[in-house]
Design brief:
By secondary structure, the chain is α/β, with parallel strands linked by helices. It folds into two domains: 165 residues, Reverse transcriptase/Diguanylate cyclase domain (Alpha-Beta Plaits), CATH 3.30.70.270; 250 residues, TIM Barrel (Alpha-Beta Barrel). It is 48% helix and 22% strand. An eight-stranded mixed β-barrel has the order 9-10-12-13-14-15-16-17, surrounded by six helices. The longest helix has 23 residues.
């Protein structure tokens, strides 16, 4: 092997900095020699906007100005451009304090104006950057570093606007946990190992449990429970939520088909806007009903106001077609957004579910009581049934009855439970 070629330094043609390939080669070589070092990542956050506003040549000139600044910042540090808007300083054998000083200087410089010349024109530009400091660990591979960089940039974008982010043990532990959760989610999607829990809903007029909402639960392969509040947003971010929702639909249909004597009139399933607008949506629902010998009148679809507003006309068309087949819709989380009441009332919903945040005001003030009562009256006048979500106390139950809310869902009556527990619960209650 030609070692001289293997150790050759290659450069980014735009900035003259060492490039991505050389960066990882340098990291690997230092790690092999037992040198840890410190890394400072500079993630430019407005380069695309600058290119659109001033033109790509000006953006390129800005990159060259930033590169020149980084090359002259510390004689012990080496500068690299490893992606379009991502630059790095690596300080072999550097201490955390030295790297923190570099990072602080860089962040301070990005609060100032950059002056660039392009074809005789001088442009004064404000650029922004996330500056993140990483201690290089001996066992860090190229993929490890890329994962850390990507995760740190995401965290910085979500939680910080200024300052320097240090990627220490705590942040690394958070990243590893999220990787673990996503691995379990992907495994559960591939193997359909999600469990379905059901929360019974009490019918105030009939004095019994007549319906239930299906809720997804994830137990990892090691037996630990992963909260939906944690894995569902991650599944959404990674494009997995629709696949999960189809799994829930099939499992619910299977359960209902296998338990035709279950003393519930309906069970609802939460569906996403993308699913409802999928041309195969109606066909896939009908296929599941047929597969499990289930009448559509036992199934309800819960959607949110956000789903409706994605494509009002198309959602209305889907709702009307399924309603004719006996599969009705619930409007979930009513009260969490800015409802266009006239639009919502023109859709064929069977049930409006008042969100817990809306129910909370019912007990806070007399004005809150009047608001809930008025909303309930409007819904009843338009032939909707009203479900109160998140009911946890006897006082809230009493208020729900006083305000003529039709059904109650919440921990006061029943927590979400497994299929087996649901059967036992309904049997013990006698559902009468």
């Amino acid at each position: 092997m030609d070692t001289s070629k293997a150790n050759a330094i290659t450069y980014d043609s735009m900035t003259g900095l060492r490039d991505r390939m050389t960066f990882f080669a340098d990291i690997k070589r230092n790690a092999a020699a037992g040198r840890f070092g410190q890394i400072v990542l500079i993630q430019l956050t407005q380069l695309m906007r600058i290119n659109r506003k001033y033109g790509v040549p000006v953006g390129d000139a800005l990159l060259r100005a930033i590169a020149a600044y980084l090359k002259g910042l510390d004689v012990e540090a080496v500068a690299y451009r490893i992606a379009n808007s991502r630059l790095v300083l690596f300080r072999p054998e550097g201490t955390r304090e030295q790297a923190a000083g570099l990072a602080g200087d860089i962040q301070a410089r990005f609060r100032e104006i950059w002056s660039v010349d392009q074809e005789g024109q001088r442009q004064e530009i404000m650029a922004r950057a996330h500056v993140i400091h990483f201690p290089l660990r001996l066992k860090d591979t190229e993929n490890d570093l890329l994962d850390k960089m990507n995760y740190a940039v995401t965290v910085f974008h979500e939680k910080a606007s200024e300052g320097v982010l240090f990627f220490g043990d705590e942040l690394n532990a958070d990243m590893q946990h999220k990787k673990y959760v996503m691995e379990e989610v992907r495994y559960a999607v591939e193997n359909k190992t999600f469990q379905i829990y059901y929360q019974p809903i009490y019918d105030c007029r009939e004095g019994r449990f007549t319906s239930a909402e299906s809720l997804i639960r994830l137990f990892a392969r090691d037996g630990s429970f992963i909260s939906p509040g944690e894995f569902i947003p991650m599944a959404e971010e990674n494009g997995l939520i629709d696949g999960i929702s189809w799994i829930v639909l099939e499992k619910v249909c299977c359960f209902l088909g296998e338990h035709p004597d279950l003393p519930l009139k309906t069970v609802s399933v939460n569906m996403t806007g993308q699913q409802v607008l999928d041309p195969t949506f109606i066909g896939r629902i009908e296929a599941n009903l047929e597969k499990y010998h289930l009448d559509g009148s036992h199934l309800r679809i819960e959607i949110t106001e956000r789903t409706v507003t994605e494509d009002f006309a198309e959602v209305r068309k889907v709702m009307e077609e399924l309603s004719r087949k006996g599969i009705h819709f619930y409007l979930d989380d009513f009260g969490t957004g800015y409802s266009n009441l006239s639009s919502m009332l023109s859709l064929p919903f069977e049930v409006i579910k008042f969100d817990q945040s809306l129910i909370q005001i019912m007990n806070d003030t007399e004005k809150g009581q009047k608001t809930i009562s008025l909303l309930a009256d409007i819904m009843h006048e338009n032939n909707y049934c009203v479900v109160a979500e998140g009911i946890e106390t006897a006082v809230q139950v009493e208020s729900a009855h006083e305000n003529s809310l039709d059904r109650i869902q919440g921990f006061y009556y029943a927590k979400p439970m497994s299929e087996e527990a649901l059967e036992r619960f309904l049997g013990q209650e006698g559902n009468a």
